[in-house]
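Re: Re: ligand-bound prediction request (bumping)

Still looking for help on this. To restate: I need the protein modeled with flavin mononucleotide bound, output as structure tokens. Inputs repeated here so nobody has to scroll up.
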Amino acid sequence: MKFYLAPLEGITGHIYRNVLEKYFPGTDRYFTPFIAPDQNRVLRTKERRDVLPENNCVSDLVPQILTNNAEHFLQTVRVLQEMGYQEVNLNLGCPSGTVVSRKRGSGLLAYPEELDRLLEQIFDGTDMRISIKTRIGRDDEENAFRLMELYQKYPLSELIIHPRTQKDFYRGEPRLELFGELLSDIGRFPVCYNGNLLMEQNYKDFTERFPQVEAVMLGRGVIANPGLIRQIKTGQPTDKKTLRAFHDEVLQGYREVFGEDKNALFRMKEMWIYMIHLFSEHERYAKKIRKAQSLAEYGCAVDALFAEQELLVNGPKRWELPLR
Ligand SMILES: Cc1cc2nc3c(=O)[nH]c(=O)nc-3n(C[C@H](O)[C@H](O)[C@H](O)COP(=O)(O)O)c2cc1C
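Reply:
Sorry for the wait, this slipped through. Here it is.
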């Protein structure tokens, strides 16, 4: 099995990826959060910093592009090719309202003709390997088979399927039955599964049901427990000492890059939305972290959490995840 880290905009930037690889190695492939080129520029400062090879210490990194414009896609590919990248990923999964209303991300799934044209142009326009990360539709799953047929016209290097629709956002369970049906229809390229593999047991149940799947992409589960992939691969559970060192280095990295502690604090809070689930009886600490106005207040809350609570390496009793 190959394990990929899902791109999470605002969390899995280069600082996070590098520190994760250092303390919890085992991820086979990393993806950058999406780069969104437009008519004015290919890469914003933040996006360039995130993909620059000298800022990245992981061996296999795939930049992700979000656009419905073939020219913008190909311009971005050329810049990334010059940096040494050999594969890019097209985002056809993002469910956010502003993205979808502009027919991008999972919004494009409702327009198969336009999607077909985009794919034709990008596959004709470059020899770079292109993989796709997709949801199974915008409004409902009705067109899922048609979408897979469409993808099969092109030489994708891989198709990553998150079997929810755009309308689902992150609600409910991924549609595993449909995923199974789609899987048996796809023969031209490898398929990677993504969605709600939050704990080791979820992974075990998944592989029991779909032993033929050779790659999985994990997102929120790894942010919750940064040692999850290592734990699944080697049986070594996450321990407090390593987790604390990991946490401190991510924070330090943000402080160096952002200069302003306010931004670093904001980033850390985003991470804690998920990582708080790794700790027993965490409610009170979660509130303190959320409300912290300074790094000093934040530090006190985190120190207390590490000192007073235990790590739940097999997952929490209950997940409280944002549904949008
Ligand atoms: C905060 C957040 C940011 C995300 N950013 C991206 C992104 O930039 N590109 C992308 O393809 N998916 C993005 N996703 C979706 C994840 O990559 C992944 O598909 C989703 O979290 C489901 O996988 P999981 O259940 O393992 O977390 C994001 C999800 C979240 C929660």
